[in-house]
Specification:
The chain is α/β, with parallel strands linked by helices. It has a single domain (about 1-215), classed as HUPs (Rossmann fold, 3-Layer(aba) Sandwich), CATH 3.40.50.620. It has helices at about 35-55, 70-80, 95-105, 125-135, 185-195, 230-240; strands spanning about 1-5, 10, 20, 25, 35, 55-65, 80-85, 110-115, 140, 145-150, 150-160, 160-170, 170-175, 200. The chain has a 7-stranded parallel sheet with strand order 9-13-8-1-6-7-14, sandwiched between helices. Helix 2 (about 70-80) crosses helix 5 (about 185-195). It is globular.
């Protein structure tokens, strides 16, 4: 089975976030990037598990610049066979999805996996757009995936229960918590990643339909007020007069 796993870089959660040019651009100075956890922990690891039990090849793909190669190599160290970097700035979800779809269309993958979203933008759009562009079935936010020949059995959480879906390959799936468990690259994997193929592909022409016009930093959290357990009247007063409903 040929599996394509879409990965994206995200700022490490400990990075200090700021913006420049009148809050219109993300300031990358001093930011440490990681593989987006949903892509790495769930989509990539599940692809590797399928390969280990059923055979096949796992290719990772990202849209980005040469500076992203270090992030790609980490994903290779976890166990992917090869990597593709589309040499372009990922302007928005539509642009990114169509770049990936163009590559996938020319290379005939059986299964395309994405994380359910990136932790920096939380858009959850790329997987569905890839599927639409390729005219393939799409299952979003799947928590379990089993392969039986040419059929996938998937589970996804819905209100009040779990939905079980069967779909024929090829298909596109976005992966959520429960799909797999995080793997830590070992020294052998890290050394092997240095020599695994990383193909750089020039982008295809895609219209830019959206653009970011500005960013805002969330308001700082207010201080915590500690109320003694026996002072219930004060707690009730604060809940009535100062607590905010979110």
């Amino acid at each position: 089975m040929k599996i394509l796993v879409c990965i994206s870089k995200s700022p490490d959660t400990t990075s200090k976030i700021s913006f420049t040019d009148g809050n219109t651009k993300f300031d990358e100075n001093g930011v440490q990037y990681i593989v987006n956890p949903y892509d790495e922990w769930y989509a990539l690891v599940r692809a590797l598990e399928i390969k280990e039990t059923s055979g096949g090849q796992v290719t990772i793909i990202t849209v980005g610049a040469a500076a992203d190669d270090a992030v790609i190599r980490k994903a290779l160290a976890i166990g992917a066979d090869e990597a593709v970097r589309i040499n372009a700035d990922p302007k928005d979800a539509f642009y990114t999805a169509l770049q990936i779809a163009h590559y996938a269309r020319n290379n005939s993958f059986d299964l395309i996996l994405t994380g359910k979203e990136t932790i920096n933008y939380n858009g959850s759009q790329v997987g569905g757009m890839i599927a639409e562009s390729l005219d393939l079935p799409y299952v979003s936010i799947a928590t379990k995936l089993d392969v039986n020949g040419n059929v996938l059995t998937l589970e996804r959480e819905i209100v009040g229960g779990v939905q079980v879906i069967e779909v024929s390959l090829p298909t596109v799936v976005s992966c959520a918590k429960g799909m797999a468990e995080q793997r830590i690259p070992n020294m052998r994997g890290i050394m092997a990643a240095r020599t695994k193929p990383l193909q750089v592909v020039e982008p295809t022409s895609v219209d830019e339909l959206t653009k970011f016009i500005g960013y805002e930093i969330p308001n700082a959290k207010s201080t915590v007020k500690m109320i003694a357990p026996e002072n219930m009247e004060e707690l009730v007063r604060l809940l009535h007069n100062e607590a905010k409903v979110i």
